[in-house]
């Protein structure tokens, strides 16, 4: 069989994988704190001993994440926060391990636990944060949570906990399939960073550029069509060769 078929097949395969990536980005255009995924593929020459490569297959590079900040959206909600600059909010993932997010849309559940919009417990210095019944809740720029107890005045405001804010560096974390970020070195605890600041009553929007994603999808679609056309050409050449052999 003509080796060109395998070359075009690998190209079409990785075009499809890139399309899936772009589609996922577009699907999360309005997801709070979402970071766009980047995809990249390159030609991988195949060598057999000395001399020039016999062919070049497509190979997907390691996926990466676009860590640029998204737009700041005012909500007026006391429990909404947005990271100002670099950093993450520590949460407890569904597997019980610590993970990080930029989505600061939070709420207090019926048991008084502070949770993200997706229901994950928000971590404090001593573990998941529990907030007593309160008339009002405020979150300071350094993550400190202050409350005014029910029936009390403003002069009785008290700090109950501090949100665990971390800044491990974007090269030290990797995004998981659940959309959360985790440290590359799971054995070492990421320390809290007092330099991370949040803005209360704001949320960070998705950093997905819809126009860029749509243009990229159109480009990938044309590349995919080209690969399929090459496979069709290989098929036609193979059939022509078979007929010539039959005639001889």
Tally of DSSP β-strands: 20
Supply the helix-strand structural class: alpha+beta
Which band does the percent of strand residues land in? 25-35%
Shape: elongated
Overall radius of gyration: 26 Å
Strand arrangement, major sheet:
8-7-16
Mean pLDDT score: 88
Helix content: 25-40%
Q: Element order, helices and strands?
A: HEEEEEEEEEEEEEEEEEEEEH
Reported for the largest beta sheet, the result is: 3 strands, antiparallel
| Number of alpha- plus pi-helical segments | 2
**C-alpha end-to-end distance:** 20 Å
Domain count: the total is 2
Query: Low-confidence parts, pLDDT < 50 over ≥5 residues?
Result: none
Task: Report what the structure shows.
The protein folds into two domains: 4-67 and 208-247, no CATH class; 72-204, no CATH class. The protein has two helices and 20 strands. The protein is elongated and about 100 Å long. The chain is of the alpha+beta class and 248 residues long. The strands form nine sheets. Strands 8-7-16 form a three-stranded antiparallel beta sheet, with no helix packed on it. It has a three-stranded antiparallel beta sheet with strand order 13-14-15, with no helix packed on it. It has a two-stranded antiparallel ribbon with strand order 1-4. It has helices at residues 4-27, 210-247; strands spanning 37-38, 41-46, 55-60, 64-65, 72-74, 81-84, 88-92, 98-101, 106-108, 114-116, 123-124, 127-128, 134-139, 144-149, 158-162, 165-166, 173-175, 181-183, 197-200, 202-204. Helix 1 (4-27) runs antiparallel to helix 2 (210-247). The chain is 25% helix and 30% strand.
